[in-house]
Amino acid sequence: MRKDTAGAGSESTVEWTALEGFVRGKVQELIQAVLEEEVTELLGRRKSERRAGVDPGEGYRNGHGKPKRLATSIGTVVVRRPRVRDLEERFESRVLPLFARRTKEVGALLPELYLHGLAEGDFELALRGLLGDGAPLSKTSIQRLREDWKREHEAWSLRSLDGREVVYMWADGIYVKAGLERDKAALLVVIGALSDGTKEVLAVTSGYRESSESWSAVFRDLKARGVDAPRLLVADGNPAIWAAASQVWPEAAEQRCWNHKIVNVLDRLPKREHREAKELLRTVAYAPTRAKALAARKGFAKRFGPWYPKAVEVLEDDWERMVTFYDFPEAHWQHLRTTNVIESPFASVRLRTTAAKRFKRVDSATALIWKLLTVAERRFRKLNAPHQLKDVLEGRKFEDGKPVLPTQRKVAA
How far apart are the first and last CA of the chain? Predict the structure, then answer.
């Protein structure tokens, strides 16, 4: 619909009052035209066009099927699939598969909407608002999707990982407010940084966060599917992870998460001291060199040790694992100091699962949260200076984030 308006001394202008409907109509016409062209290509002749010598089995047009609603990201359109008879093999459109009712873009939208807080009862209303009143969707759509996600997750968990050049790896066990909590189970998640700088979710499985057997099973499975030892594994202070890693990948360097360390130290201090202590702890964690980090640690001990020795003990505990990142490129430090690579996408998981306890079974919870991570994976930030990942992979040495030159190695020897 359009409205013509004209002012004195001005040319007529056109105001579109239903632009979305107009665009949707044009898209509908285009899809229908493409379907017709697909049949023309198949038969080698246009509609009503005669061709001499058409053999039986080459097929002919036979009208159209019933109108079908197709949900797209710009709304719902109605198309009619052309019918073809007398073919040796059944004709199936490549453009519109036989039972398709929504495009891939809408299929990707559904899990994101569900996992970002829409309960099942809200789905039909929300989708009709997005896709139009004619959207061929209902509350049962999400139930079917959940079953699909389970099957997808099972297949994903068995996929080959051969050829993945995993340089860094982050591992963490995440508790969510779901059916998993009944058995104190968690989701064991592993994300890897590849040699091109991209991050990839490698494992999402239910298990016991404090169990070295659970973590060993995760790491062994990754190894069996083709993942070599990472150059650096980043995790929190969970002894089970480190025990499992030492068994499966003893050659991997180890870095503990500074965010968890800072929280553990602050737990040993009264709240009135938190502000100053947090500033000093960040000075330790973000020191430009290993030596300056040690000096900052001693400064913290001098300030708080006389009154809160337990806090200092926690800071000093497992110190070498806290400063391993200095042996890697400085440009990568912001990714290596913490397990934020896993924690960040899970912040939204915790929010949604707290708001609606919709996970009744372990496999449902695992599959749904895996689906959220695969959605989030598309937005994972690449590592800075990805060209240096090849250097790390090939075993080049770094000191305080700077490459060690061959002459330096000889002097050190």
Answer: 81
Structure tokens at 406: 């061959």
The residues facing 87 across adjacent strands are: 58
Percent of the chain with pLDDT over 70: 62
Structural domain boundaries in the chain: 13-47+55-101, 105-148, 262-325+395-413
For strand 68-72 and strand 166-174, is the pairing parallel, antiparallel, or unpaired?
Answer: unpaired
Lowest mean pLDDT among 7-16, 158-167, 260-269, 388-397: 7-16
Q: b/e string for 388-397 if b means 16 or more Cβ within 10 A?
A: bbebbbeeeb
Could you tell me if 204 and 191 are in contact, meaning their C-beta atoms sit under 8 angstroms apart?
Answer: no
pTM greater than 0.85 (yes/no): no
In 40-153, beta strands by DSSP E: 58-64, 68-72, 75-79, 82-87
Strand pairing report for 82-87 and 166-174 = unpaired
d(CA 107, CA 127): 12
More confident residue, 36 or 161: 161
- In angstroms, the Cα distances linking 310 to 258, 273, 295 are 18, 14, 19
Rounded distance between C-alpha atoms, residue 25 and residue 205, angstroms: 45
CA separation for the pair 260, 235 (Å, rounded): 9
Question: How far is the C-alpha of 153 from the C-alpha of 368, rounded, in Å?
Answer: 9
Q: Report d(CA 381, CA 384) in Å as an integer.
A: 9
In the numeric block, which tokens belong to residue 84? Answer: 């073809």
Say what the pLDDT of residue 8 is: 46
Q: What's the DSSP call for residue 305?
A: T
Length of the chain: 413
Question: HSE-up of 169 (CA within 13 Å, CB side)?
Answer: 28
38 three-class SS: helix
CA–CA separation, 238 vs 247, rounded Å? 15
Residue located via tokens 């790491």: 219
128's CB contacts (< 8 A; 6+ apart) are 135, 137
Cα gap 178→313, rounded to integer Å? 35
CA pair distance 389, 367, nearest whole angstrom: 31
What is the DSSP-derived secondary structure letter of residue 73?
T
